[in-house]
Each structure stands twice: as structure tokens, then as C-alpha cells.
Design goal:
Blueprint: E1 15-17, E2 20-22, E3 27-31, E4 34-43, E5 50-53, E6 59-64, H1 69-78, H2 80-94, E7 102-105, E8 108-111, E9 113-115, E10 118-121, E11 124-127, H3 134-161, E12 167-171, E13 178-180, E14 185-189, H4 197-209, H5 218-227, H6 231-245
Parallel strand pairs: 4-6, 12-14
Antiparallel strand pairs: 1-2, 3-4, 5-6, 7-8, 9-10, 10-11, 13-14
Helix pairs in contact: 3-4, 4-5, 4-6
Length: 247
């Protein structure tokens, strides 16, 4: 299963003392000279520190039960470069799409053309009701295309690999490219349609091999190698470009 984490909004806990409700004083981490607010959450199932950038620009720090807060903040400070890149990525995602905006489609970053009530990406001409919502209209078209194409491709690759699939669904997953259930149900992220065909097929093969091995053991990876010899190159593409596609 391919998993990529995304930012999650968490509410600050409120303390109630002698009938008075108080919000804990905000905490901060210095990132390249700027104090960035941090919300700390302890999670009993967490195995390691995790820091994420939330949509409000603050940080969400998850601390395992029993681990020190000082260690968590030191960890966040060590992620300064990643935090800076993630903040910039989120800033760019908030910019409205206009003519010249580049978006991923079938493995290429294509320049968008917006004219009147339509937007064009590649050979796709998409109706746009409001030019303030060009991105919404384009992604709606891509999701519809993915819903048609990805299940069919998944079944083709399942036949090639000699595995049986019960059902294939396409969803708007925010933190993973695909999933395979114990009931042989394959779930695929619609954004696979934005990737090169080889990377898309690798993700599908990856999930199909989980039907045989619901883990990431050596046997699992041997099965992947047997049906998808280019899987390492596909993994590299996902590491370099995958985060640009996720919300």
C-alpha cells in the first residue's frame, strides 16, 4: 500500500479550571527566522514524531505517548527545509488557475489555456462556468476520465498478473495512491490519470500484488518485480513529483 501523509486540521484542547475555560498558550517553532505556531497532539498509537503543515499555515506536531515535547520540537526544527517547501507548495495551490498555469496531465506538466467559458489542457476542452473556479472544473473533468479509464486498466493488468479482483473503485484519496482490501477490492486515486502511464501501471500492479501478499515482505516485492520490472523508476518518480499532485 502506498501511503503519503497529508496535513490534518486539529483543534486545540481547552482546559477547564475552577469553572473557567482556557486555551493553552500557543507554542512556536522557529523556521528560518519566522516563528510558526504549533499545535501539539499526543497520540497513544503514534510510534514516532510527525509534523505536518496545516491549511492555516501552522504546524501540527504529533507526539507519541511517553515521548518528550522537547524532543518533538527539536524534531520539527530539523524539518525546517521540508516545512518551507511544503508551505510554498500549499501557497501555490491556493493561486487561481489562469492561462499559463501548468498542471499535470498524463505524465506531463501542460500549460493551461483559459478563454471565455472554456479551459483547455492537452486535447481536453472543458466548460468553465466561473473563471475563478477553473481548477475545480478541470479537476472535475479529470476525475470523470479517471473513473472511466482506471477500473478498466486495473482489470487488464489483473488479467496479465493472473489475479482476481472483486471490484475497483476510484476515489479522491488525500494521502495515498491506492489500496487493496482483504476482500480483493482495489481502490485507486483519481490522480493516477495525471501520472505517466508507467507510473500509473506500477501503482495498480502494487495494489494487485497485495491480493497475494497483504504486506511489504520480500516475497511481496519479488511479486512486484515479476510483473513490473520498472517499479524502482516509478517509485523515484513518485518521490520527486508525487507530492505535487496531492491536495
Amino acid at each position: 500500500m502506498l501511503i503519503y501523509y497529508c496535513a490534518v486540521q486539529l483543534r486545540l484542547p481547552r482546559l477547564r479550571l475552577s469553572g473557567v475555560t482556557r486555551t493553552p498558550a500557543p507554542r512556536y517553532v522557529e523556521i528560518h527566522g519566522t516563528n510558526v505556531p504549533v499545535t501539539v497532539t499526543r497520540h497513544r498509537l503514534a510510534r514516532r514524531y510527525v509534523v505536518r503543515v496545516a491549511e492555516d499555515g501552522g504546524l501540527r506536531l504529533t507526539v507519541p505517548r511517553g515521548a518528550s515535547l522537547a524532543g518533538g520540537f527539536a524534531f520539527a526544527e530539523r524539518q525546517a527545509e521540508w516545512i518551507t517547501r511544503e508551505m510554498e507548495r500549499q501557497r501555490l495551490r491556493r493561486i487561481p488557475w489562469v492561462t499559463g498555469t501548468r498542471a499535470w496531465f498524463r505524465g506531463e506538466q501542460m500549460a493551461l489555456r483559459v478563454s471565455g467559458s472554456s479551459a483547455t489542457i492537452g486535447s481536453e476542452i472543458i466548460k468553465v462556468d466561473d473563471q475563478r473556479n477553473v481548477r475545480t472544473a478541470v479537476e472535475k473533468r479529470l476525475r470523470a476520465m479517471a473513473a472511466r479509464e482506471l477500473p478498466e486498466r486495473c482489470r487488464e493488468l489483473a488479467d496479465q498478473a493472473g489475479v482476481k479482483v472483486a471490484r475497483v473503485s476510484v476515489r479522491n484519496q488525500r494521502s495515498r495512491w491506492g489500496a487493496c482490501s482483504s476482500r480483493r477490492v482495489i481502490t485507486l486515486n483519481w490522480r493516477l490519470i495525471q501520472m505517466p502511464a508507467t507510473v500509473r501501471d506500477y501503482v495498480i500492479f502494487h495494489e494487485l500484488m497485495h491480493i497475494r501478499h497483504p504486506n511489504h515482505s520480500r516475497r511481496f516485492w519479488r511479486e512486484v518485480e515479476g510483473v513490473c520490472a520498472w517499479w524502482k523508476e516509478a517509485e523515484r518518480w513518485l518521490r520527486v513529483y508525487g507530492r505535487e499532485l496531492l491536495p
